[in-house]
Amino acid sequence: MKLKQLTLALSALFLSASAFSATEADVEATFSPYKNGFPKAPGLTPGMTINKANVDQFKDILALGTYRVIKEGWTEIKVGNTTNFDLPSSYVDATRKNLNTAKLGPNNGDIVGFVAGRPFPEEPDLKDPRAGEKLAWNYKYGLNWGDNASIEPLTLTLRNMSTGQVERRLKLEFHFLNFKHRIKDAPVPAVPDNASNLFRSIYMKVQEPSDLKNTQLLIQRYDDDQKLDDAYLYLGFQRRVRRLATGQTTDAFLGSDLMIEDFEGYNGRVSDMKWTYKGTKNVLLPMWNHDELPLTDEFHDPEGYKFVADGGQGNCFFQGTWQLRKVYVLEAVPVNPNHPISRRTFYMDAQLQALNGAIEIYDRKGEIWKVWSVGKSHPDHHLPVNKGTGIGIDDAFQMVDIQAKHCSTGQFKGKIGYKQNPPSLFQVQNMRGSD
């Protein structure tokens, strides 16, 4: 590139960054989107049910995938009150303290200057060609499960949606640890002795059934988003750890309808996708108070905890309430042309900036393949350990393959700030010694 062209390009990049810089008002708005009132829609009232008979009336406030499964008569949803999911003051304060320190680099997946908090709290702008990428960074450095947490158990059920037959049921445990950019739980701001410069790790272990018991998965994500994740699988019957090839994160996970890349809504790097912000609208998302839902003691938790019930066609749909939320519509197209999907559409909650409330997954032909939703409970209406944490609790999920008429559902018992999450749990050596 000639010097003049380089100068013009750098100038344009600088002007773009300046034009979309955040202000103190943006910080207030991003964490308090309902300060001036909750969204409304004609005919929508808390307590009502949206079903096949009336769904067309509410099509504009439903994610396309949600509309499809209701229109087919497979499920119906009950509308709840819109509520505030206030994030921890430590995260808000970190955002304010580090305002405008984070900048995008020249390539998708490049970020410099990020310390902690929400990196890009300004309202996304359709005129900003990288607005979608900024939202993706907000998700990566968001508070899905906080600095550290555990789910034990997560009950994963595989079903034939046409008949409701349970084909397989697994009991899993999941553990999450942020090594860097921590905002609340000691050690802050980072776990020491992190020579590999990891940002976050996920560790999973199968408890049941017996033929899969002690199968383990470890994902290590680097702070440098351009660096490929390290992923390892331990198969108990083989008693050996093997490293997963990159493409295996898009294989069916333990025979379910999920890929590893689907975890938490999206479990990949920012640089793995081309992100496009499609606009802001009000959409119904599954967000609720756990203690106010239809609950089941089917799984007989020894502590008396009751899980969100399933229902609808084939028992493929969680029985939680949905509330009208401000969302950012975000499209992600895989950079890898051999990826098994053509794109995902996320309806990102503007307050939490999580990606898992409502998602459509499209096949290589561009047709909807799966409808993916994770319902969140307000922490103050969940387990005592979660009260006051300010972390939306992933409470139940439904992954519905609308082409194959198959589903995978999940019920969580998640705990925030779980102390039995030592860094050693997230090392390969731990997998070998956990039999």
Describe the protein in words.
The structure is a single chain. With 435 residues, the chain is of the alpha+beta class. The chain has one domain. Helix content is 13%, strand content 33%. The chain is built from six helices and 21 strands. The protein has helices at residues 3-19, 24-31, 64-71, 89-97, 131-140, 428-432, and strands at 49-50, 77-79, 103-104, 111-112, 148-160, 166-178, 198-208, 216-222, 230-235, 240-243, 273-288, 295-296, 307-308, 310-311, 317-318, 321-334, 343-349, 359-362, 368-377, 393-401, 406-416. It has a five-stranded mixed beta barrel with strand order 11-16-17-18-19. A two-stranded antiparallel ribbon has the order 3-4. Strands 12-13 form a two-stranded antiparallel ribbon. Strand 5 and strand 6 (166-178) form a beta hairpin. It is globular. The N and C termini lie far apart (57 Å).
Please mark out the parts with pLDDT under 50 across 5 or more consecutive residues, or reply none.
Answer: 1-18
**pLDDT averaged residue by residue:** 93
The secondary-structure class comes to alpha+beta
Cα-atom radius of gyration = 21 Å
